[in-house]
């Protein structure tokens, strides 16, 4: 079944006593686009994470965030050269400007830049198993979400296709009445001009030419074929979004041709309704993987 491109998932993993959460959000996109935001220590894992996503999805915009849930406090390190600079600066101010007072421990401890936290090193190759487990959990939820959203999309698309078929049936029923109305109108006008001396064969010939000019049987047949293929693609297991988008273009093309051939206000109104329905279908298709 076709899947939506909208989804969300989250997974947790632990490395060296630190717990991390990996969150994946997806939206619609013509191709596959992946953006990541994670602590610097995971930079070596970015390519692997991207590859895992591409294995399981073919389209969509993916935002991957890795955040620390709980972690051990990194060691605090004294920046001795910076502390010396503060002391020397204090002595120089005292000597040059005659300022009284001493630089004591309390004052020194308030200078935040004399302390640094040691950064944790990059994750090792053996940590990939933990990262992958968290990623699998998140992507599994994304798949479930997209499948559920896909079911709602399919239901809506099938409903709209049924409506489109009903409108097409209205056009098919109306066309013979349009030809008949043209024939009656033509006969009345010719009788008026020729004072009732009208050859029936001439009326039939003109009506036949009009019927041929306004015949939409081929377009209707192709339209029905496109709708049947549309249903088949919706029921398929692989990605179908791009093919469905192309079919929407074909549906619009056939409906435009029917509209250009029609010489009847009621058919024109129905064609407008058909175009509106195809546009709604196209909007929904933009979110199908």
Give an overview of the whole structure.
With 289 residues, the protein is of the alpha+beta class. It is built from 8 helices and 6 strands. The protein is elongated, with a radius of gyration of 36 Å. The termini are close together.
Please render the helix and strand layout as text.
Blueprint: E1 7-15, E2 18-27, E3 32-37, H1 46-56, E4 60-70, E5 76-78, H2 80-97, H3 105-109, E6 115-117, H4 128-193, H5 200-213, H6 217-235, H7 241-261, H8 265-285
Basic shape: elongated
Give the topology string: H per helix, E per strand.
EEEHEEHHEHHHHH
Helix fraction by DSSP (H/I, runs of at least 4): 55-70%
Number of helices: 8
Going by helix content, strand content and strand pairing, the class is alpha+beta
Brief summary:
The chain is of the alpha+beta class and 289 residues long. It contains 8 helices and 6 strands, in the order βββαββααβααααα. Strand 1 and strand 2 form a beta hairpin.
């Amino acid at each position: 079944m076709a899947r939506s491109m909208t989804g969300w998932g989250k997974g947790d993993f632990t490395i060296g006593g630190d717990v991390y959460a990996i969150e994946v959000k997806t939206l619609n996109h013509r191709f596959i686009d992946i953006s990541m935001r994670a602590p610097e220590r995971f930079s070596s894992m970015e390519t692997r994470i991207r590859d895992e996503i591409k294995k399981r999805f073919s389209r969509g915009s993916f935002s991957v965030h890795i955040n620390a849930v709980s972690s051990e406090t990194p060691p605090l390190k004294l920046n001795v050269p910076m502390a010396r600079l503060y002391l020397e600066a204090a002595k120089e101010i005292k000597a040059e400007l005659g300022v009284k007072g001493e630089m004591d421990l309390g004052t020194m401890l308030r200078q935040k830049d004399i302390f640094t936290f040691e950064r944790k090193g990059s994750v090792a190759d053996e940590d990939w198993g933990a990262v992958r487990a968290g990623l699998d959990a998140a992507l599994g939820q994304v798949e479930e979400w997209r499948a559920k959203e896909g079911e709602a999309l399919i239901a809506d698309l099938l409903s709209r296709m049924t409506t489109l078929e009903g409108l097409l049936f209205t056009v098919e029923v109306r066309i013979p009445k349009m030809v008949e109305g043209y024939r009656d109108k033509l006969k009345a006008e010719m009788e008026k001009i020729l004072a009732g001396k009208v050859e029936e064969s001439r009326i039939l010939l003109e009506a036949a030419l009009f019927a041929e000019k306004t015949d939409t049987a081929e377009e209707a047949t192709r339209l029905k074929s496109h709708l049947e293929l549309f249903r088949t693609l919706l029921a398929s297991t692989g990605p179908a979004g791009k093919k469905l988008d192309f079919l929407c273009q074909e549906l619009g093309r056939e409906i435009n041709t029917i509209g250009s051939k029609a010489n009847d206000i009621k058919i024109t109104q129905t064609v407008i309704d058909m175009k509106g329905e195809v546009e709604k279908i196209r909007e929904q298709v933009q979110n199908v993987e």
